[in-house]
Write a structure and sequence with these properties.
Strands 1-8-7-6-2-3-4-5 form an 8-stranded mixed β-sheet, sandwiched between helices. It folds into 2 domains: about 120 residues, no CATH class; about 200 residues, Rossmann fold, CATH 3.40.50. The two termini are about 15 Å apart. It is built from 9 helices and 8 strands.
């Protein structure tokens, strides 16, 4: 649909140029008609995929306003093509200053209007699916990302672990015992988030400035379980304006990130995605970001970074039965079929 719309817009712009140059351009009305039809069809396919429970008159007004936005953006595309044609003629020594300025003003005006209309649009967030922890093997993550919250000082004397807790070799039994004893320990949720992913290849921790000294203790806790004994666990951190993934044991000289600083945290997460995709060649579909831990801004950023592309998100329900839910989040810049 996008290709058809672009082709129809291209033909419309060529026909307009022919008419301006004094030629008959008999295809002009058909090209513009096709362009408008394809644009509206494109809009219809990529409009809000969720039910809109509004009064009929409001739904019509919303649809018309959305269609107008796409038509104006299409007009900006044609105006850009016309201006580019005049620019090409000017470079070739055939400058018509009056026409050049007229097309420049036209493109600036329509482009400004299109930008204003687009900025007023709402992006609809939805999920392709939501699954419980009993997901199939093919859907499990190979690379899991956690936001690691810092543990209270009262746990420092016990290596950041609950005091006198009878650890076993069973992750399921241990998280059940933590709940049975009503122990309030922040790392319980990351441990619960591990349960669906018994075939992980690596975990990357995003730490706060307070939790980065505790990262090695968390890694030791995870590797205590036989299925994660040889798992690679590292910290995404920063030093001298350079971010890298280091072993938890080597993170002492590095800085964590301020979980309340949206800009810094967003930049760090995006850099991590680029590092995994292009530095380690991890497939996007094999990456899951857990947004249970950290502060609320961390949860927002973790979910938002998965909107585009194949990276998935997961959340550990904080109420019984404490399932791990996987979300494949997208915005309404997706066709309704998905």
């Amino acid at each position: 649909m996008a290709l058809l719309t672009a082709l129809a817009g291209h033909e419309s712009a060529l026909a307009i140029i022919e008419r301006i140059d004094g030629h008959a351009a008999p295809s002009l009305p058909y090209a513009i008609g096709a362009f408008v039809v394809f644009t509206l069809a494109f809009y219809g396919a990529y409009d809000n995929p969720l039910p809109q429970k509004l009064r009929n008159d409001l739904r019509i007004r919303v649809a018309l306003w959305g269609a107008l936005t796409w038509i104006v953006c299409s007009a900006a595309f044609i105006a850009l093509f016309l201006f580019a044609d005049q620019l090409h003629r000017a470079v070739g020594g055939n400058l018509d200053l009056e026409a050049f300025l007229a097309y420049l003003v036209l493109f600036a005006a329509v482009g400004t209007l299109a930008r204003k209309l687009v900025r007023g649009q709402l992006l609809v967030v939805h999920s392709r699916y939501v699954e419980s922890q009993k997901m199939g093997d093919r859907d499990r993550a190979k690379h899991l990302i956690f936001f690691l919250s810092d543990i209270e000082k009262e746990y420092e004397s016990t290596g950041w672990l609950p005091k006198d807790f009878p650890w076993t070799d069973s992750l399921d039994d241990d998280v059940a015992e933590l709940k049975r004893r009503s122990i309030r320990w922040k790392w319980e949720m990351p441990l619960r988030g591990l349960r669906p992913h018994r075939k992980l290849e690596a975990i990357t921790l995003i730490c706060s400035e307070e939790s980065i000294p505790q990262a090695d203790a968390f890694a030791a806790c995870v590797k205590h379980y036989p299925e994660f004994e040889h798992l690679e666990i590292r910290v995404w951190c920063e030093r001298n304006d350079e971010r890298r993934a280091v072993r938890t044991a080597d993170a002492g000289g590095y800085k964590g990130f301020r979980f309340h600083d949206v800009d810094q945290l967003s930049s760090a997460v995006v850099d991590l995605m680029k590092y995994l995709r292009f530095g380690e060649h991890v497939k996007a579909r094999d990456i899951i970001i857990d947004f249970t831990g950290g502060q609320k801004p961390a949860s927002v950023i973790a979910a938002a970074v998965t909107f585009r592309g194949e990276v998935r998100a997961q959340y550990v329900d904080t109420n019984e039965p404490w399932d791990t839910l996987e979300y494949d989040l997208v915005t309404n810049l997706e066709p309704k079929e998905v």
